Amino acid sequence: MSLRTRTSIVSVATLGSRILGFVRDAAIAAVLGVGPVADALAAALALPLLARRLLAEGAFNLAFIPALARETGAGAAHRLSLATGGLLVGLLLALSGVAALFMPALIALLAPGFESMGARAELAILCGRIAVFYLPLAGLAAIYGGIANAEQRVLLPALAPVAANLTVLAVLIVLVWQGLLASDIAALAIAGATVVAGVSQLVLMLYAARGCAAASGRERFSLSLPWRKATHVLRQAVPALLFAGLSQFRFMIALALVSGTDGAVAALNYAQRLMDLPLGLVGASAGAVLLPLLVHKGREQGHDAAHAMLAALAFACPAAIGLFVLAEPVVQVLFQRGSFDGEDVRQTAALLGILALSLPFQGLERVLSAIASAAGVIRAGEKIALASLLVCLLAGLALGVQGEAVPVAGAVALSALASVGAMCVLLVRGGHLALGAVLLPMLGVLVAGLLMGSAVWLLESGSRLWLVEASGWQAAVRLLLLVGAGVLVYGLALLGLAGLRRVLCMPRSL
């Protein structure tokens, strides 16, 4: 199977998973709305969502697959996979047990604004004690998914998130059918569904790895396994996991800062989920296409890295501007039903509009992280990533003095901007990024995006005059037309700017 075919499979499966994720989140919004119950569940699921981002979406493979490839001899890869899996799952089981035992303290850390012994805190503790046991399942699924990917089996591992989303959706359908809206039982059921979703992912990964050498050896779990090598694999995976989880770490910081405001945690959670589709597609491309290419190129990677940045910006910039301009119509069409009312739409849209400003920077950050990994400047990249999280915390504390959610969302954008700036300086100085080669095309992308945003804003404002109370299918059709118009304007603007550039760069005849 060619690299292009494998990449296409991963991209299509990722897109399908994200679309199902939208459906899942819309169903959760309909069941819980934006309120104390939704706040409690969002806080309780923060840690499992982080585990999914770090382990279930392939970041662990960046360290695990190369380690498997270096193992030679009969049963060596199987021995390493046993040792690595044992360490990872044992660590996550211990973490899950400790987290469940000290869940009140953990919720107090994740959501310090929840009133101690209040309704939100109590429900978050109950849901958290259930959902936290998703962690070891995600770890085991990551091991078997890496084994399958090492043998170039990509279809079933790529479909694992789809299976997880379908599992949660099945539970949500039952909740709607039973009329359990905005209830504690609904939140507890969704927390339990998260664990069941982890089981479905693991089953699919086990089936995908069936027959692989690293999964079917005769070696048994024992003290003679290569534990030192397994420890090295886990240490090598830390940078990739840190880079992959930056958006979720920022979300957790923002969650803690806004937790004192009723409904803000849930609204922030829904807004962040809408950001995951474009971020997930950029991240999948960076891991499946860009990283192997740059590793192969070696020191000649500068221009390819710069053009990868340009491609990421060309995708993320219009998505960000579109979400900023159309935040309210997007939230209305996707979420306004059941327990999710008009006030919830306005609260979530305000957060989405500000978070959208961070989208180009977080997209570029994922590409730059892949470039840093390929270039071997991992330790410096780790320091920049950790510093950007500190920037997010400090900026959030400074901007969100009154506990308001919108300024805190702005801190996320500032943090990502600082990270991208520092990473660019690091990579350009090291000769790993020929940024000058794409500065003019990047400016063209920004201009095209602004033209698109202006056109869409004018069309959206004008359409309100003849669709004052658009709802249901009318609102959906209106949104689709606006998105289509934006895509058309953006494409034409890019073509026009490219043509103008060719004319200006054309040598003059004597």
Q: What average pLDDT do the residues reach?
A: 84
Strand proportion, as a percent range, falls in under 5%
The outline comes out as: globular
Total DSSP helices: 21
In total, the number of strands is 0
Helix content: over 70%
Radius of gyration: 23 Å
Question: Which secondary-structure class do the elements indicate?
Answer: mainly alpha
Give the termini distance in whole angstroms.
53 Å
Task: Detail the poorly predicted runs.
Answer: none
- How would a crystallographer describe the biggest sheet? none
Following the backbone from N to C, one meets helices and strands in this order, namely HHHHHHHHHHHHHHHHHHHHH
Word description of this protein:
- This protein has 510 residues and is mostly helical.
- The chain is 81% helix and 0% strand.
- It is built from 21 helices and no strands.
- The protein is globular, with a radius of gyration of 23 Å.
- It starts with a helix and ends in a 5-residue tail after the last helix.
- The model has no long low-confidence stretch (mean pLDDT 84).
Set out the fold topology.
Blueprint: H1 3-32, H2 36-44, H3 46-56, H4 61-70, H5 76-101, H6 103-110, H7 119-131, H8 134-150, H9 155-178, H10 184-209, H11 227-244, H12 246-258, H13 264-297, H14 302-325, H15 327-335, H16 342-356, H17 359-375, H18 378-399, H19 405-429, H20 439-466, H21 473-505
Output the keywords.
510 residues; mainly alpha; 21 helices
At a glance:
With about 500 residues, the chain is mainly α.
